[in-house]
Amino acid sequence: MHCAVVAPPLWPIFLRFSRLSLAFYHRSLTSLAMTLVIPLGFLLMSSFTYYANSGPLPITMGSTGSVAPDVLKRIEQTRPPGLQIVPISGSAAQNVRDGNARLVLSQDAGAPTPTIYALEQNKAIAELVAVALSAPGTPPAYAVRVAADGAMSFAFLPGLLIMSLMNLALFTTGAKLLSDRSKGTLRLFRLFPVPLYLIFSAEATTKLLLALGQSVLFVLLGDYLLGLKLSWPTIIASIAVACVSSLSLLSLGIALGSNLRSYSSGIHLFTILNLLMIFMGDLIFPNTHYPATRLVAFFLPATHCVNLLRQTMLDYPPSFSVATSVAFLLLFTAVMAYWTLKGFRYTAEQ
Fold it and tell me: Topologically, how does it sit relative to the membrane (predicted)?
C-alpha cells in the first residue's frame, strides 16, 4: 500500500526564503551600507557639485537684441572687473539653460527695467551683478529672473539611480549568490522538496523591496535637493519605472551568479560588466548619440533603463522609443530567467 506524498504549501516556504535573504543584511551591515547609504552619498555629492558649479570669475553675460543701446552703453561704463559681455542669439532663458552664458540680459516689451536671467545656482551672482551695474545708493535698475533648468542639467540623477540599482543587482545579489555556491551553501537546497523558481522568486522579491526603497529615497531626495518640483504622478511613475528596471538588472545578476563556474574569475566579470554599463550605457556619456557606440549601448540593459527613467522623470529626449526599450527589457528579463532555471549550478569553484 502506497501513501500519497503531500506537497508542502509553497507560500510559507516562500516567506522563509525571503526572511533568509533579508537576514543577510542583518548579519552584514556593510552590505546594507553599500546598497543604500553609499549611493545616497553620491547623490548628495552630485547635488552639491551642481550648486557649486558657478565657479570663479570671470562671469559671462550675454545680451539679447531687445536691450536698448543706451542700456548697453551704461553697462559698458559701469561694468565691474571680471564681467565679460558675450554675443548670443535666441531667447534669454534658452541661452542660460544651454550654458552659452552664465547670465543673459534681456528687456521685455513694456517692462520698466531690463531683466538678468540666470539658473537657480547662479541667482546670487545675478543679484550682485544687478547691484554693481546700478547707481550707488539706488535700488537695482535690473530685475533678476530664474530660468528653469533644462532636462540636460539633471540627467545625472536618473543615471545615479540606475547605477545604484546595478550595484544591488550585480554585487549585492549576483556576486553573493556566486559566493554561496563557491562555499557550498546552496548544496543544501537540493534537500528541499520545492521547485527552484520558488527560491529565486523569494530572492528577487526581497531585492525588489530594497530597490523600491532606493528608488523612493533617490527620487524624493533628488526632487528636494535639486528643486525639480516634480508632480506626484511623475514621482510615482518614476519610482515604478525604476523598480521595473531593477527587475531586468536583477535577472542579469541572478543569472550570472547561478551559472558562472568560478568565484575568482566571476567577480572580475561582474566588475567588467558594471564598468561597461556605466561608461557605455548612457549613464554618464551620451553613447547612443554617436554611431560608433550606439550599437554597443543598445545591447546593454542599463541603456534602456536610464532611457525610460529620464523620459519619465525629466521629459528627456529619448535615445530609443518607449516601445523599443520596454520590449528589449522584457525580452532580456525572459532570457535571463530561462538561463537561470535551465543552467543553474549548485556549486562553483573558489
Answer: Multi-pass membrane protein
Q: Report the amino acid identity of residue 185.
A: T
CB 259 within 8 A of CB 252: no
Tell me the C-alpha distance between 285 and 298, whole Å.
14
User: 150, 22 in Cβ contact below 8 A?
Assistant: no
Biggest CA-to-CA distance, the chain: 108
Rounded (10°) angle between helices 232-259 and 176-183: 30
Q: Which of the 8 DSSP states describes residue 147? A: P
Q: Mention every residue, 6+ apart, whose C-beta is less than 8 A from residue 328.
A: 298, 301, 304, 320
> CA–CA separation, 186 vs 227, rounded Å?
47
DSSP string across 216-240: HHHHHHHHHHHT----HHHHHHHHH
In angstroms, what CA-CA distances link 134 with 14, 65, 147, 316? 71, 21, 22, 39
- Residue 296 is placed in which grid cell? 554597443
Task: Give, for 311, the enclosing helix (H) or strand (E).
Answer: helix 301-314
263-301: pLDDT as tens digits: 888 888 888 998 899 888 888 888 888 888 899 999 999
Q: Which residue has the cell 520596454?
A: 326
Question: pTM higher than 0.85 for the full model?
Answer: no
Contact 210, 26 (CB under 8 A): no
Long-range contacts of 219-228 (CB under 8 A, 24+ apart): 219/161, 219/313, 221/40, 221/43, 222/43, 222/47, 222/154, 222/157, 222/161, 225/43, 225/44, 225/47, 226/47, 226/50, 226/154, 226/157, 227/120, 228/154, 228/314
